[in-house]
Amino acid sequence: MQKLIDGVAKFKSEVVPEHQALFDKLATGQSPDVLFITCADSRIDPAMITQTMPGDLFVCRNAGNVVPPHSQNIEGTAASIEFATAVLGVKHIVICGHTDCGAIQGAMAPQNLDAIPRVQDWVDNSRAAVKAAEAIQGEGQVDLLTATERNVVLQMAHLNSHPAVAARLAAGDIDVHGWVYHIADGDVTAYDAETDSFKSIVQ
User: Fold this and answer.
1) pTM (2 decimals)?
2) What is the 3-state secondary structure (H, E, C) of the chain?
């Protein structure tokens, strides 16, 4: 904890004064352009990856960057999506998966999660992605990256079931993007619907 406390002290004494005008503005409200849905994995830092500042991203994180299909159940991800799209008026939604994702590994082998049933139930939201990967590569032949990519595509589809998103999509004033962050080299690949594949966004 001392590392965190020391970090807060440095942030307050060095970072805030350097960007005082920005923090004065942020103290009265927010108007991000992007809802960034990503994994809770500690290796993922959306602001670092995208080199954005506070106020630029409305971030929603959970295991496996999952967007459960809309339902009447009270669920934090759905509430965040609704708020970002209907209240904040974000112009873009990014669903960002990543390499070496433990949640997707769990979806590929759910029997390994018997001791953590809440996690097992949660990653069931990604099981269809594993089936999609099997259709591409063959049962028992699926690699983790392909399953991760198919999971991003699946969660993009789930977004369409959320009323606030569906309304914005129908109006044509919001875009949905699917990304995979590659931890080892910092690359980000984006989903191309025309080719049904992921391509580097850095050319």
Assistant:
1) 0.95
2) CHHHHHHHHHHHHHHHHHCHHHHHHHCCCCCCCEEEEEECCCCCCHHHHHCCCCCCEEEEEECCCCCCCCCCCCCHHHHHHHHHHHHHCCCEEEEEEECCCHHHHHHHCHHHHCCCHHHHHHHHHHHHHHHHHHHHHCCCCCCHHHHHHHHHHHHHHHHCCCHHHHHHHHHCCCEEEEEEECCCCCCEEEEECCCCEEEECCC
Report the alpha-carbon distance of residue 61 to residue 94 in Å, rounded: 12
Is 171 part of any domain?
yes
Domain range for residue 138? 33-68+75-193
Q: What is the pLDDT of residue 73?
A: 78
89-121 tens-digit pLDDT: 999 999 999 999 999 999 999 999 999 999 999
* Dihedral of alpha carbons 160, 164, 169, 174, sign: negative
CA distance 57 to 71: 25
Q: What is the CATH number of the domain that holds 157?
A: 3.40.1050.10
Count of structural domains, the chain: 1
Identify whether 3 is part of a domain: no
Is the pLDDT reported for residue 74 higher than 90? no
2 lies in a domain? no
